[in-house]
Amino acid sequence: xxxxxxxxxxxxxxxxxxxxxxxxxxxxxxxxxxxxxxxxxxxxxxxxxxxxxxxxxxxxxxxxxxxxxxxxxxxxxxxxxxxxxxxxxxxxxxxxxxxxxxxxxxxxxxxxxxxxxxxxxxxxxxxxxxxxxxxxxxxxxxxxxxxxxxxxxxxxxxxxxxxxxxxxxxxxxxxxxxxxxxxxxxxxxxxxxxxxxxxxxxxxxxxxxxxxxxxxxxxxxxxxxxxxxxxxxxxxxxxxxxxxxxxxxxxxxxxxxxxxxxxxxxxxxxxxxxxxxxxxxxxxxxxxxxxxxxxxxxxxxxxxxxxxxxxxxxx
Length: 315
Known about the structure:
This protein has 315 residues and is an all-alpha fold. It contains 17 helices and no strands.
């Protein structure tokens, strides 16, 4: 004859079964956690919130110590109180953020967390961003920006691009890579939520767009129209008056401004020669507003003067 387990188990002896502190030597909690879940599933009384949290956190700590951190997250996701659950899971992710990557095992762990355990993907990216923030290399800054973008942290990503990344990419002639970050920030109205976008990321977006348009024109001169030239000239003239608004708190920031200014000045001079409507004079104000070093400013003004004299001779 079978025994009716539900009739013989009471609230008090449930606590005695799954309360590890009643034992003389703290054992592995492998049996206590599933036992508590089964008994609660059968409709018996739960442990108090404090005891339940103690059980979950203790078992998760043992799993994490054994290298099974994703299963520690699994246990912690069973904590009933939402705020406590989130804090505990985030703490594990922060400690193990270095493990979030591209290997097969890491991909499997991430799939388990997001698809099976319903851990918000943003939590994983924020944890990885915390790890990347500790790296002081350009690669670390790029990883940090990518993770912040993936986590939807637009302001934080914008700050990393401005303060740590943009100058390095411009000076390293990696404008395409810079374009990736700033165009991602500009997408789908994200820039509307970014503080001081017009004096930061927007300038880099326009600079990237201008360089792309210039390359396209130079590679397709046969199909280049005067309207295209004038449109690009206008964009570059507007941009020239805003370059000085970018951060200039470090030598690299100042070098970045100088590099951008030099590129814009050279481009404007080339375009002015193709502009049939008083091109050289139109770019004079733009050259004056660019933060160029004195000797570079004189060189560009000298070229502009030569272009203007040639225009006068051709009339």
